[in-house]
Batch of 2 targets.
Target 1
Amino acid sequence: DLADLSDHLLRRIPAIRSATITMNVGKGAMTVAVVERYGFAQVRLPQMGGMLEVDREGMLYPAAGSRGTLPEIAGIGGPMLVPGRNLHEHPSGAGLMRILGSMPAEFPRPLKSIRVVRPDHFELVFAGNVVVKADPANFPHKTDHLKTIFAKIAAPAESNKVVSYIDIRFQRDVIAYTEEESSSSKRGSKKGR
């Protein structure tokens, strides 16, 4: 049965999103058309010595090779992180997917990685090594808010300061500047925005 064969392919090869199999009996030919999954993040698995990609549906599958532009998820592990499983099954999975799914491709600073501190606390690292402490609540609203913050810190008046981290977990944001670049104090400053 062609439907069974298609289901078998999807179970055996998690990188396949869909498969259509047709048979031309007159020509004695079978055609298999597959649609591959497209990763939008990767999970490093130190215990397995490899990487898994995750697509927008949360499906985990072996990384197809080096895709240096995909953000890397770190700080998670466990038996549910295997090819063919869904990231939503992990305690931090729903929050990770909410944050990753809300990041537009044209963001002011590209997202490099997300480290899971706790299921409700993530550290996002953007280009320029700007760390954003976040929780998964209120995304994608916080994504729009983060764009505004990045615009503020890129403004000429702030250009002589290097951002240490931005914390968007609370009502008022905290932007901390490194002490070497900040002229407001020797220990650095925190500035609510």
Target 2
Amino acid sequence: VVIGIELVKIPRTDNYRPHFVLYSLCKDTIKECMDIPIVLQQFYDKKNFQLDIPFDANSNLFKEAVEIIKRQYPILKSDKVSIKDIISAIDNYSLTKRFSIAPNSYFQGEFMQMKLEIELFAGNTKKVQEILNVIEKRDWDIKHFTVCGVDVEEWIDNLQKEIYKQDLFIQKVENNLTDKKLAKLDISLLCD
């Protein structure tokens, strides 16, 4: 998993917004992994306004933004990141208004898949099976999956194959971890 802060330029302004991002490293190539984040969450100031920072901002405004970010996502300032904290960040994001109104959507399926893959990489077989059971029993919105170009049954079959071929899955993630694009990033250890 790649976790961090991404600065997104606001169109037609000289401002940017920092976002908490979480990218999967479980796809076939690093390009696919870094294409679209699983989580892209904005930060808010004390007045609950979106955190906009001018490019020419003074250091005090930037320092204030850093403190807000650390308070809202303490996971970003740790040398060790727990699986529980990552899963919690995904769960919290999935409960935002944008996603919670469609609890059986493809997006919710992606969140569940990400949690399963994190547990699979960590070797938590019991948790993997629990998540897979939830996925298999859920009454997914087939129309939404189809609009997103995904067949529900095929998606579940692919998850089962991923679990069955865990060694190949782990090798794929490890290959993505060694990509030169990630070499400049700070690394935190994943712990239970």
